[in-house]
Design a protein that fits this description.
2 copies of one chain form a homodimer. Chain A has 216 residues and is mainly α. Chain A folds into 2 domains: 63 residues, Orthogonal Bundle (Arc Repressor Mutant, subunit A); 145 residues, Four Helix Bundle (Hemerythrin (Met), subunit A) (Up-down Bundle). Chain A is 75% helix and 4% strand. In chain A, strands 1-3-2 form a 3-stranded antiparallel beta sheet. The longest helix of chain A has 26 residues. The interface between A and B is medium-sized, with 31 and 31 residues. Chain A binds a DNA duplex (30 and 30 nucleotides) through α3.
Chain lengths: 216, 216
DNA sequence: GTCAACAATCGTGTATACAAGAATAGCATT
DNA sequence: AATGCTATTCTTGTATACACGATTGTTGAC
């Protein structure tokens, strides 16, 4: 448990939303949550205010909080922004790469290779996350890294769904290879271009997303 | 006043921070704020939680809330991300431009021209804001628009300082012209490139920023 | 005179109480 | 039977009370 109940509840409820335990559109009753977690309504309300500020739920005055349903189109838009931010991170990483970042990227990249070779989609899911985080960090921009991490977190469930698509695993890893090459070569523009393509959802990948979202 | 005191307080305190009424590093005492606004501590706390989630203040458990001091380097990073997001908005606008957006951009652009010609830096400050907002809207991506507006809001005070720099007004307007041309010509890549340059803080503009921040 | 330990005070964190608006169900009227 | 009005209930919004940790000031020892 975190140092105060409010933050703990925020993380707890956030995870419940991201793991689809609370479905989009569902109403979050303060009293129910309070008894469920064995606390009073006060910290529950504080957690909800924060989630509202982040954009995970919507608090309609006097009418309670509901989990926001992004819908395929908005998720697409979020991936579009994510692609742009990751592209920037990649281009910065290419320019500013130092030894530690280079090793971190190499290490996570190697782990991705293993998971991809093994066809282990769950393992790849985690390793892929670490790989991308290594690139955020290599960009050496604290603000950008924070923005990337936050958006990455919100997109986590959809990312997971995407990996289930046929061949996506090996395709993804091949793209990683090219990205690593560009960054290590110091080619910021190429790294940016490749990352935009890697993260964004173009063409048939959008219908894959819609299908997987509908399947839940 | 908004529909509930918490939101009203959030906006009120947010404005006070952005207008530098509460200086960076300053401690925000819940009781003081409560008496100052004539309410109890409960809505004050809720407002503070939201501001913490947005990133304007930091709440250290059991040790109160302080206004975050971005510092020149972090402000630079924020402009860097802003430039990237605006670049995306511009490229989308170039591709998706419709009649209404075109007219909105033209109208705000014309107002910028007048303020720039008059050398009225305060008027230009407002018109410039509307111009950029018109581009966000023209991109037709709700999520991107929200992100742009949020970051734009946080950077507002620094943007204002920047306009005070010699010749910045006319330079800025000339850049606007090129941006409008690129968007109207449907050249997304060029619009992106120009907006990145227009918004980002390269070269001597960084030292201008540092100087103006120190001058406060 | 400086530093450390202890006590008092102050401020935050949580719970509970109360007020007020929104949803709902029941009754009456058409 | 359907619709509209009213009363009740339920939930949110705000205030207040209480508990606990942090900060600070004072006193004593070296």
């Amino acid at each position: 448990m975190s140092e105060n109940v409010g933050r703990w509840l925020r993380d707890e409820i956030e995870n419940s939303i991201l793991s689809n335990e609370f479905s989009p559109g569902e109403r979050l009753d303060e009293t129910v949550l309070a008894t469920r977690f064995g606390v009073s309504r006060t910290p529950v309300r504080e957690a909800l205010m924060q989630l509202d500020a982040i954009g995970l739920i919507e608090i309609r005055p006097r009418r309670g909080a509901i989990v926001i349903d992004p819908g395929p189109h908005r998720v697409y838009e979020m991936f579009e922004v994510m692609a742009e931010l990751e592209g920037l991170a990649g281009s910065l990483a290419a320019r500013r790469l130092d030894k530690a970042s280079r090793e971190a990227i190499n290490a996570t990249h190697a782990r991705c290779e293993q998971s991809a070779a093994a066809g282990d989609s769950d393992a790849y899911y985690y390793d892929n996350e670490e790989f991308h985080k290594a690139i955020y960090a290599a960009g050496r921009s604290d603000f950008l890294e924070e923005q990337c991490l936050q958006l990455h977190r919100r997109l986590r469930p959809y990312r997971r769904l995407q990996l289930r698509v046929r061949n996506r695993l090996s395709t993804s890893f091949l793209e990683h290879c090219a990205i690593v090459d560009a960054i290590f070569a110091g080619d910021g523009d190429e790294a940016r271009r490749l990352l935009r393509g890697h993260v964004g959802i173009q063409g048939e990948r959008f219908s894959d997303l819609v299908a997987s979202m509908a399947a839940r």
